[in-house]
Amino acid sequence: MIKKAIIPAGGYGTRNLPVTKVIPKEMFPVGSKPVIHYIVEELKESGIEDILMVVSSHKNLIVDYFDSSLALEAFLASRHKLHLLSEHPIPDIRIHYVRQPYAKGLGDAISFGKQFSGGEPFAVVLPDDLIFSAKQPALGQLIEAYTKYQCSVIGLKETKTEELHHYGVIKGKPVEKGLYRIQDIVEKPKQNPPSHFAAAGRYIFTPGIFEKLETLEADAGGEVQLTDAIKASLRACDVYGKLLEGDRYDIGLQKDYLKLITDMLKTEKNPQ
Ligand code: G1P
C-alpha cells in the first residue's frame, strides 16, 4: 500500500512573480486556507501517513503554517477564542522536511526522497496542481490503479491543445477505460504534442525511479527533469497513465487560480 508521499515545494515560482518574491505559491490563499492545506487534505484522504516536504530557504512560511503557534494559541485562549483555530484544523498527518539547496528542478527535488521512501513505492504530489473530486481524491484514484497493476502510474488530464506546452504530454496505448500504457512522454512540447493527455501533478513511482534520476544530467535550463526519468523507465518496465476524475486548477497559471476562486463562489463550494 502507498503510505508515503513527497511534495516538492522548493521552486521559486517564477511564473507567479512578483508576488512569489515573498509569498510561496503553495501559500496562496483559497478562502481562509492556503493551497498546500488542500493538498495535504487530499493526501490524508488518500490514506497517506507520512509526507516529505522538499522545501528551500524561502519556503519557511510552509513549515510555520503546519506548526503550532504558541503565541497565537495563548492570545486566542486569553480571549476565549481558541475555537477559531480548531474550526479549521491542520490535517493530522506526519510531515517531514528536507531542504533542496539549489533549485535544480523537479527531478532533483524528488531524489531527496530516496531514503524517506525506504525502498517502497511512493507518491509524488505537486503542490501547485489542485484537483477537486467529489467521488474519490485524485491520489486515491492513482493508488487504486497502482494496486491493480503494481507499476508506476501518472495522473493525466485531457488538456486543450494551446495549453499542452505547459506540461509533460504522453503517448499511450489504451488498456482499459481511462487507463493507458505509456509509450512516450515529452516535456513541454513546443509543437506536435503526442496526445491531449498531460501529466497533472500526481504520480506513483516504484523505487527504480531513483536510479534513473541519478543517471540524469541537468537540461539546458540547469534542471533535472522528472519527465526524463520517467522516459528512461519506459525501457525497463511498464508505466501507466490514469485519467483523473475531478476539476483541476494549475495554481501556476493565473487564470486557473482566479477561476478557482470564482468557481468556489459560483458553486458555493465552501472554501473553508
Ligand atoms: C511539472 C512537470 C510536468 C507536469 C507539470 C504538472 O512542470 O515537469 O511534466 O505536467 O509539472 O503541473 P512544472 O509545472 O514544474 O513546470
UniProtKB/TrEMBL annotation:
Q: Which GO terms describe its biological process?
A: UDP-alpha-D-glucose metabolic process
Under Pfam families, the record lists: NTP_transferase
Which EC class does it fall in? transferase
The EC designation for this entry is 2.7.7.9
Domain Nucleotidyl transferase residues, every copy:
4-265
- Per the record, what are the reactions this protein catalyses? alpha-D-glucose 1-phosphate + UTP + H(+) = UDP-alpha-D-glucose + diphosphate
Q: Which UniProt keywords apply?
A: Nucleotidyltransferase, Transferase
Per the database entry, which stretches of residues form a coiled coil? none
Keyword Acyltransferase belongs to the record: no
Annotated GO MF terms: UTP:glucose-1-phosphate uridylyltransferase activity
Q: Which residues cross the membrane?
A: none
Give the InterPro entries listed for this entry: GalU_uridylyltTrfase_bac/arc, NTP_transferase_dom, Nucleotide-diphossugar_trans
The entry assigns this protein to a family as follows: Belongs to the UDPGP type 2 family.
State the name under which the record lists this protein. Answer: UTP--glucose-1-phosphate uridylyltransferase
Its source organism is: Bacillus spizizenii (strain DSM 15029 / JCM 12233 / NBRC 101239 / NRRL B-23049 / TU-B-10)
